[in-house]
Design a protein that fits this description.
Blueprint (H helix, E strand, L loop, with lengths): L5 H10 L3 E6 L2 E5 L5 E9 L2 E9 L5 H16 L4 H14 L3 H12 L5 H19 L9 H12 L3 H20 L13 H5 L13 H10 L5 H13 L3 H5 L6 E2 L4 E4 L10 E4 L2 H14 L11 H7 L7 H15 L8 H14 L4 H7 L6 H6 L5 H19 L15
Antiparallel strand pairs: 1-2, 2-3, 3-4, 5-6, 6-7
Helix pairs in contact: 4-5, 4-7, 5-7, 6-7, 9-18, 10-12, 10-15, 10-18, 16-18
Length: 415
Amino acid sequence: MNKLTDIQIRTWIKIGKPVAKSDGGGLTFTLSAKGLASWVLRYRFGGRPRELTIGRYQDISLANARKAATDARAKIQGGFDVAREKRRTKVETAAAMSFRKLAADYMEKKFPHLAANTIYQRRSHIERIILPKLSGLAARDVSTADVVAIIESVGGRSKSVAELVFTAISEIFKHAVARHVVIANPCAVISVSAIIGKAEPKRQRLKLTAEELREILPAVHTIGEQNALSVKILLATCVRIGELIKAEWAHIDFKTAEWFIPDQNSKTGKGFTVPLTPAVIGWFTALQPFAYGSRYVLPARQARRIEKYGADIHLNQHSLNSMLNKLCDALGDKCRRFTPHDLRSTARSHLAALGVNIIIAERCLNHSLGGLVAVYDQHDYMTERRAALELWTDFILTCEAGENWKIIPIRQNVR
């Protein structure tokens, strides 16, 4: 008994190599490869070897570990399996967890592994829709009927949002099952379609035709110069609306004609560089006076948004959506109603029509190439993308001038 000393323990921790040293009577000091120092009591119960983790060395001193081991050995002599008792207590404590605490634990543990857009959307659904309904309950008391009531309430407004809310609840309870907070997931035996019917099919992305672009581009200035420049930049660079509204002037290099989109602004979570054509550089330059010194290329304009988030916040993407609706209303049957994201599908379709290689076109939109191509092809195709976007920008300028495109598409090399 009492074989170890504090000096020995501190020496082992300083050396950092994994060890397991007995203090006698089953009490063992362990140091893992990751540097975690703990106290473990090893004993036999019913003829079988058992282990009770007493705690970490920094939290429990050598003297206190010995006292805890003595108390545990007394219980073992009295017929109690202390390790089993500790696990049972832990499970009971977890089972008493409130749904609010469970949701917070889920967000803390799982959100770091999700994409930024998913985190923003799921947090909103949890905090604004789910918690107001379930926060007063213990997690184990949430029933299938509670989930159904939430889905019915949300589904009356939007079936697609109901699907997302259901996913959020289900993921929280999957986490709860893994943590032994609940025995079963109340979402496991139901589906959104069974509760409120199937959601409407997603709207197909548009490819605006050359004829439509010849109507849209000459008229786009009618929704305001800042909006017009934004539309043309979106169309010419093939980026997502979220990537443009979060763009900062520090991300744009006018000398090298490149725009870097950082990880946190990219939907894929991986930053990338967009080559800028001379026309796009000119459009970015024309936007600078509208920024009024903001770090954002497109700063917020609404007083309510500025009051809520502060003076230097970026534009809300719904502002551009509403202006495009206004443009479509004015053009009437000269073009179909389109969204900022339709500009990406328009660009991708026209790049193909212009003869741009499929890999180059996909990289222009920062799409993952997938499969073995993604694994082995690490080339960024900057030169090729710049050439493709210059051709595409020429097409856009031709449409803006109301003229027909007469340049022969790029020829594909076929071997």
